[in-house]
Automatic annotation (TrEMBL):
Classification via PANTHER family: DEHYDROGENASE/REDUCTASE SDR FAMILY MEMBER 7B, DEHYDROGENASE_REDUCTASE SDR FAMILY MEMBER 7B
UniProt keywords, alphabetically: Membrane, Oxidoreductase, Transmembrane, Transmembrane helix
Family that this chain belongs to: Belongs to the short-chain dehydrogenases/reductases (SDR) family.
Organism the protein comes from: Azospirillum melinis
Top-rank taxon: Bacteria
Keyword GTP-binding tagged: no
Transmembrane segments annotated in the record for this chain: 221-241
InterPro entries xrefs: NAD(P)-bd_dom_sf, SDR_fam
Protein's UniProt name: SDR family NAD(P)-dependent oxidoreductase
Length: 253
C-alpha cells in the first residue's frame, strides 16, 4: 500500500516497531500504537505527534485476546485501518540449561497468539471493505530451528507460513499480506546478545526496507541479503551436515 492513512503497529514501544511508527508519522496519518511499557510507548507517540501524526496509544499485552479485540474494534470504528503491522514479539535467554517451560510457553503465546489476536479482529472489516494490508513480523530464524532459541524459531516459522498461506486466501478479496523476515536488527532484544551478530542492521535502515517492501505489496520482505542466503543454505542442507555446526553456535544467557 503506497500511502496508508490509518496504521496499527503492535510492539511499537521499541525496536523495529518504534522505528516504523516514526517513519510513517506524517500530517494526515493516524497511528494506533500498542506496547507493554506505557512510558516508552508515550515517548514514541510524542515523536510521532511532533512529525504531525495523530496518535493513539494503548498499553496492552498482545497475548490478551479480549483486550486486543476490544481495542482494535474501537480503533477501526474511529478510523478504518489501512495497514496493520503485527510486530510485537519476544525472545528469551537460554544459556546452558535451555529454555524453561515457562519461557517457551510465554514466547509462543506472545509471538503466535499475539499475531492472531492482532489480525483477526480487523480481518472481517478489511474483507468487507475489500481493502487493507497486513504485515506479519516473522524472522530469518523461522527458516531453520536453531538450538539456542527453539521456541522463538518455532513461533517465527509458524507465523511466516501462516502469513504466506493467508496471503493466498485473501488475494481475491482486496487484502494484501506481507511476511517480514529480518536478520539481526539493533533493538532491546538483540542488545542483550553477547555473541557476534552477522550483518547487524541499524533499526532505521530496517524500517526503510520494510516500508519499501510493503509499498510494493511484496509477499516476503527478507533482509539482509547475505544473511538470507546463509539461512536458506542451512535450511536446504541435510541436518546431518549442519547439526554439529549449529550446536557450537553461541547462545543467549
Amino acid at each position: 500500500m503506497k500511502q496508508p492513512r490509518s496504521i496499527v503497529i503492535t510492539g511499537a514501544s521499541s525496536g523495529i516497531g518504534e522505528a516504523l511508527a516514526v517513519l510513517y508519522a506524517a500530517p494526515g496519518v493516524g497511528l494506533a500504537l500498542t506496547g507493554r511499557d506505557s512510558a516508552r510507548l508515550e515517548s514514541v507517540a510524542q515523536r510521532c505527534r511532533a512529525a504531525g501524526a495523530l496518535v493513539e496509544t494503548k498499553a496492552i499485552d498482545v497475548a490478551d485476546r479480549k483486550a486486543m479485540a476490544d481495542w482494535l474494534a474501537q480503533v477501526d470504528a474511529t478510523s478504518p485501518v489501512d495497514l496493520l503491522i503485527a510486530n510485537a514479539g519476544m525472545s528469551a535467554g537460554t544459556g546452558d540449561g535451555g529454555e524453561t517451560e515457562e519461557q517457551a510457553r510465554r514466547i509462543l503465546a506472545v509471538n503466535i497468539d499475539g499475531v492472531l489476536n492482532s489480525i483477526h479482529p480487523l480481518l472481517p472489516a478489511m474483507r468487507e471493505r475489500r481493502s487493507g494490508q497486513i504485515a506479519i513480523m516473522a524472522s530469518l530464524a523461522g527458516f531453520r530451528g536453531l538450538p539456542g532459541a527453539p521456541a522463538y524459531c518455532a513461533s517465527k516459522a509458524m507465523v511466516r507460513v501462516y502469513g504466506e498461506a493467508l496471503r493466498g486466501d485473501l488475494a481475491g478479496e482486496g487484502v494484501g499480506v506481507s511476511v517480514i523476515c529480518p536478520g539481526f536488527v539493533k533493538s532491546r532484544m538483540t542488545a542483550v546478545n553477547r555473541f557476534p551478530m552477522p550483518f547487524l542492521m541499524e533499526t532505521d535502515a530496517a524500517a526503510r526496507v520494510i516500508r519499501r517492501g510493503l509499498e510494493r505489496n511484496r509477499a516476503r520482505i527478507a533482509f539482509p541479503g547475505p544473511m538470507m542466503a546463509a539461512v536458506w543454505l542451512l535450511a536446504l542442507l541435510p541436518p546431518a551436515w549442519t547439526d554439529g555446526l549449529l550446536r557450537q553456535a553461541p547462545r543467549k544467557t
